[in-house]
Amino acid sequence: MQPNFLYQDLSAIDRQLGIESLPIAAALIDADCSLIIENAAFAALTAGFRTGSPNLMDWLHPEDRPIFLAALSSAFGGLTTSNLEIRFGTSQNRATCLAALSSQVADASGLKAVVQLTDISVLKATIADLEISASRWNNALRSSLSGVWDQRFDGQLYYSDVWRELRGMAPDDPIPTTTEEWLEMVHPQDRERTLHCIARQNAGDPDYTVFQYRERHKDGHYIWIECRGACVEWDENGQPARITGTDTDVTARKEQEEWLERISRRLKLALDVSRIGVFETDFAAGTSDWDDSMRRIFEVKQGDNIRIGEFWESKLHPDDRERTIAHVEERISKLEPFTDEYRIIADDGSVRYIRSNSLPYIDHDGHLKMIGVNWDVSEDHRLRQELERAKTLTEARNAELEQTRAKAEYSALHDYLTGLPNRRYLEAKLDEWQKSTTNTFGRLAVLHVDLDRFKQINDTLGHSAGDAMLKHAAGILRTNIRTGDFVARIGGDEFVLLVAFDGKAKTLSQLADRIIAELSQPVAYDGHQCRFGASIGISHSDGDIIDPQQMLLYADIALYNAKNLGRNRHEFYSQGSRKILANHRRLSDDLLRALENNEIVPFYQLQFDARSRAVVGAECLARWQHPEHGLLTPDRFLPIAEEMSVLARIDGLILEKALVDFRQWRAMGMGIPKISVNVSAKRLNDPRLPQLLTDLGIEPGIVSFELLETVFLDSHDAVAMSNLAHLRDLGIDIEIDDFGTGHASIVGLLNLKPKTLKIDRQLIHKLPSSQEQRVLAKSIIGIAKSLNIRVIAEGVETEDHVTILKKLGCHTLQGFGLAMPMDFTATTQFLINSK
Ligand code: C2E
Ligand code: CA
Ligand code: CA
Known about the structure:
By secondary structure, this protein is α+β, with helices and mostly antiparallel strands. An 8-stranded mixed beta barrel has the order 24-25-27-28-29-30-31-32, surrounded by 4 helices. Helix 16 (454-461) packs antiparallel against helix 17, helix 17 runs antiparallel to helix 18 and helix 19 (548-564) crosses helix 20 (575-596). The longest helix has 36 residues, at 378-413. Bound molecules: ligand C2E and calcium ion (2 copies).
């Protein structure tokens, strides 16, 4: 602003005395600056810095003296100086004045100069202040990155450097001059709104003092500008004449805001979707701020405030309350973040599972607060429980399946009765052995065990007895093998042992004998003593790789051998064994044919009265008149017959033929009183027996049935018992054969009510040499007599035997010493001779 300054026309000073009346401070000075005349205003203005000197130069600030002198000399030279800024005084009193100097011829003393002063000290100070504050503003605006704009609607426009810098403009870049031009720079989306904002701002609407919009930077990108402005001048019509304000680049803040908004939008969405409840607890204030989800989970009533220490605690499941609260308190005391899971009771009494994440902290004001989230995991829980249940169920099912599978596998490979591995398992085992190293297989022995007399037990005592015996036998076999060895039941009464072979046949012999000895021990079953034995065939390899099936076969052959050699023994496989087997097999085939061809015939061994030596009977013994092998004794073919289940048939056949011979002898007039036949267990248990015998038309008292002590004395089979009763009805006597070897009980004897006892030939054999045996024979005879049972001694070979037996009171004698078994013709001859 240009100071408006008035000064007097110098012509007025021409009138010399007029100085005093001037309204402005004025004085007249001479060429050396000495004051000549001054007016009151001048005196007043200079009062503060006037020195004792009348020379104006002395009053001046030393620095300004030269310019004053220069102006003075100019004045004397005729040039008027106006508006010369000069300073008066020094430190304390000073003034800045505008001086006007002009020359004046006041009198005869020559040229004088008129000095007029206007004090501009106050004005100067004001300007200085203004400059300071302007620079302050400029600095402030610059550092706040605010650009200043000032627009007068008469066309005067001002834009600060910062204003330009914000937009990437150089100080000399052109600035849009019209609103339209400027609008081009505004983001298209913001144009309409920005125009509206400007209009409102111009109208002085306080809501629009500040607004934001996007403007294009010189680089091409948009920046966010916060425009702060106001109308400061209006024209006479009340229309805005000048608006001024600042623009600030708020892009960074806007981005921040947008980012924040995005984040919170996401968070809100996440919270909404997850139904997670958020809370913030202020322990100092005793309040907790819960969001909608939180309130929904805990069923907070509309408008209720959450007081800490009350509501939440009251919702906790009684079983969880103590633990949960203690946990929370502990974590708060340590200011540690924590998670937890607990149950609450819903209003309807149901249980809800809640999971929580919480963070206790101290805020800026030092207040203890806690922020956290809670969510309802009841569904998860239920699912988990269901899964757990399903898993347990599946596991149980799997276990069951596995068990079933294992059971099936077990039963597929095991014998149900004894629990021993079965034939399949044996074969698998042999395969395994073969596939394993040569060495292992090379040291293997196979023992094929067959129970003797097992069939009789089964036939006479029934299957349950047979089963019990098999279990018993299995137990014995099991205890006799070592770990790594193997025992299987391969069917019926046959077992196979696979044992490690140490190269010594003796070890195998000992094992076999031990097994036979143990199996021969009587076994108690249902009040009976059962006896059976065992035959064992053994094969072993000595390092050569042999087909395991072959080894089985070899053991089998050896077993046949053992049986043929009298049973209750073991045999090793040898080349000879094969021949025996072959014979045996051939015999089996032959036997069937023999039965058809009448090759099985009775031989007769006569029996004699101990005292009179008269023939009192004959035992019929089966013989096989073999076309190739000649006459075969029962030991050669009865085991085969038993195996082939033709033993009963042989018994019947012998009886029939013997009856024919018996009747012929009678007809010939040299009859023997009676004949006795051997009867197998099978035959005694045959329900058809009574009918078969009836058909034969046997006269009472002429036939005796020899029953083996061991089998029959223990027989309680209903069929056998009824058959025995029939025998009595038919007048067929019963004799107990081989008495003294089978441990028949006296009670059993009584039950059977036999007519006769046959003392076994083994016992008889030892009579001459053993006192003990004699005592035994004597007591047997004594008991028999007391029961009214007759006694026959068999195996009488010597005169000694005869003497002793006679003495002991034995009724009847039979043996090689008296008569050999003979065929019909020879017997007939014998009878004739002995007449
Ligand atoms: P067993 O019933 O004990 O028959 C007596 C056996 O003793 C006969 O043998 C006979 O030859 C033999 N023997 C007779 N006297 C003497 C003697 O003084 N010393 C010796 N050491 N032995 C003597 P065999 O004929 O070989 O019969 C053996 C067994 O065969 C018989 O023993 C009998 O149990 C059975 N057996 C024979 N024929 C038949 C039959 O038709 N049916 C049935 N089921 N078994 C029969
Ligand atoms: Ca006999
Ligand atoms: Ca006998």
